[in-house]
Specification:
This protein is an all-alpha fold. The chain contains eight helices and no strands.
Length: 203
């Protein structure tokens, strides 16, 4: 088999992992603050984090089933779509002061995380056994880059939202939505052929 598609898909997964990591850091930073503000009590500050874990739990099974039945690309697209919808719902909830809607957005965002965490394993399955660990490490490193960019994007977007007259916490949520849409576009355009088929060829 030709190794050109393997290299392209590995790089695509690297970019996708970096984008998703930056989105998670940007949005995750403000969730507890928003929850305390919308609920009127710091007691509820941890509620969206719990909701995210519920979403990740649900996605663990659903994403695996989708990846087996439809392929890696459709499942990742579904994950990024849920993350983007969750980010947009969070923005609407903040603007309309709806705590329940914000918790639902956290569940959707958690489902995105459950799906995006499979990226490193997808990178591994298209490699030979000798290259598998290196490819996984390469993609995980992209998450580190995203974690560095995330706080910078958080501050920039929060300042921009405040300058525009909105709640500052809307900015990080908006940048997360933009990043997730960008990630979905990258997956749709470049994650071809489906890594599941490449993995079978390698085996």
């Amino acid at each position: 088999m030709s190794w050109g598609p393997v290299r392209r898909i590995t790089i695509t997964l690297f970019v996708t992992q970096g984008v998703s990591s930056a989105a998670v850091v940007s949005a995750f930073t403000v969730m507890a603050i928003i929850a305390a503000d919308l609920s009127g009590s710091r007691v509820w500050a941890g509620a969206p984090i719990l909701a995210m874990f519920v979403g990740r739990f649900i996605a663990s099974y659903l994403m695996g089933k989708l990846m087996d039945e439809l392929g890696r690309r459709p499942a990742l697209l579904a994950a990024f779509a849920m993350g983007a919808v969750g980010s947009c719902l969070a923005i609407v909830s903040v603007l309309n002061r709806q705590f329940g809607g914000f918790l639902l957005s956290a569940v959707l965002f958690g489902m995105f995380r459950g799906g995006s965490e499979q990226i490193r394993f997808i990178a591994g399955e298209i490699q030979t056994q000798q290259q598998r660990a290196r490819a996984i490490g390469f993609v995980v490193f992209a998450g580190t880059i995203g974690s560095i960019l995330g706080p910078w994007l958080y501050q920039l977007s929060a300042n921009t939202a405040s300058s525009a007259g909105y709640d500052g916490s809307v900015g990080p949520l908006a940048i997360a939505a933009v990043l997730l849409v960008l990630g979905a576009i990258v997956v749709s355009a470049l994650l071809r052929p489906d890594p599941r088929e490449l993995g079978r060829s390698v085996e």
